[in-house]
Hints:
Radius of gyration: 22 Å
Shape: globular
Mean pLDDT: 93
Order of helices and strands: EHEEHEEHEEEEEEEEHEEEHHHHHHHH
Helix content: 25-40%
Amino acid sequence: xxQLNYDVLIIGGGFAGSTAAWHLANKGLKILLIDSKPWNxxxxxxxxxxxxxxxxxxxxxxxxEGEQLEQKIDGIKLYSPDMSTEWTVKGEGFEINAPAYTQRxxxxxxxxxxxxxxxxxxxxxxxxxxxxxxxxxxxxRKEEQIEVKAxxxxxxxxxxxxxxxxxxxxxxxxxxxxxRDADIAYREVAYTKEDIDEPGYLKIxxxxxxxxxxYWWYFPKGRDKVNIGLGIQGGMGYPSIYxxxxxxxxxxxxxxxxxxxxxxxxxxxxxxxxxxxxxxNGIIVIGDSGYTAxxxxxxxxxxxxxSGFCAARATLNSFExxxxxxxxxxxxxxxxxxxxxxxxxxxxxxxxFLQKLSDDDIxxxxxxxxxxxxxxxxxxxxGDLQLSVADKAMRVIAGLGxxxxxxxxxxxxxxxxxxxxxYRAYPAGPDQLPKWKGEVKQxxxxxxxxxxx
Length: 453
């Protein structure tokens, strides 16, 4: 078997992996990035394709341009199940051509020294002395196995978790996921029969009948093209996602011309807090494989970029020290939790609360302003749901028809604050991780009991 040696092996070239490669390029490291897809499909993942502008600004990443940018976003319109209430939440962003943007980032990384191999799969990890030291890969172009030794591995295999799932169970980053903490998503991109009104606004439709535990989306990609799809909660025994799509798509996309479809596909989207640790000896896990997607709306591109940035920063520091232990790579966790993970854990609780509500609860809460637009904006941006004394008094009046809804909302706000505080006090090193994990799981168990009453 042929053997190759690198400083860093990146497995997966999607938003997370390409971001890590882009930040590591031209830093004096010998880097190999592999992806199982052919070059022209790298970065192609079934999702809404929307990314907030702030992620590019905060991480120093270039904006999408030309064919990479399909629509500038001005905000989101959120609709109640009965369609009688419409909320508008302002916020700049981009509806992108994900493969085109990802491939641009990879080309820039490649031009600065990163080697990229498409149609290449990581078959199994190489383990030595409790460290991940590379992988046995399979190059499908040449039909040959190659043993790639690396000082460290960045795992970005997406929702498949195809590499880290092969690690021994005692390795913390091999943690599995409860199916109920994921959404099953399906989307189609197609042309519309006529021009779209307000193409700068993404539309989200909440409805427990047409998308139980999730929502429908209608995301314009210009004047006459749209990304339309839905997600439903996994692990609940619901019918196939395609059953829901075929039955209800006309309710949300009557203007869609399915005879002029561009692409379609489904995927699993993690909707929980991040992995308890994104790192262990010789390995960093990022993107969907590290459960970095937003638990409420399932958007994962911006947070994947954050995880890739944090992984690159920790990697460079580890090479400076010549230490690739979990302790040395721990900065990835601290960086990610500060920038996004604490908010993400808080939003997991908000998601669990929303999934317990009936359509009648949601209609009432939105119509009466028991839950408000500013709550959604604040929660999505900070992970907080603040209820002042005056605010509570006003909501008591609004919620008189459904006192249990107001009571649960109050408890949700308190638990969201508690779990965010726990994540702000994330362990300084691996030895403190078991105790912290126990505290997090206990808090979530208590929360679930409260909202189930």
